[in-house]
Amino acid sequence: MNRTEQRQAVEELVYRSCLTLDNKDWKGFLALCDDDFRYHITAYSPEIRRDMTWLEQDKKGMDTLLTNLPRHNSDHSPITRHATVYTVELDEAKGEAAVVSALQVFRTQLDGGGSELFAVGRFYDTVKLNGSGPRLAKRIVKLETRQLGYGYHVPF
Fold first, then answer.
1. CA distance 134 to 16
2. pTM (whole model) above 0.85
3. Exposed, middle or buried: residue 22 (CB in 10 Å: 0-12, 13-18, 19+)?
4. CATH of residue 30
């Protein structure tokens, strides 16, 4: 696979990760992830002048979280993730790509159908490139938005 094809495959992986999560296809999302997958959600707090970690899981922990979502008292308003891949830096020696994407998350209210911008941030992904296709090895979600309200447990 040449560099252009690798970049396209990596971009498609990012977009497909959004689609599977939008569709609540938790198993489909995890199938896009490497066995050593790590997932983090952080947000910078100006009050304490450091990043806050809101979620940190490995693949097994993500599977448990996603499996238990129906049991949580949570906001069931559908969300739509819009990612725009900014950069893909291929490292052929490591067999990885470092990917930076913009993220906008929209929420549509169940009680009237109004949609609103819910969260803004960036994905910082590490993607493993191997013979079976690209797989997410690590995703760090750095949010600009810090007020998400209550009852929200679904990862971005």
1. 12
2. yes
3. middle
4. 3.10.450.50
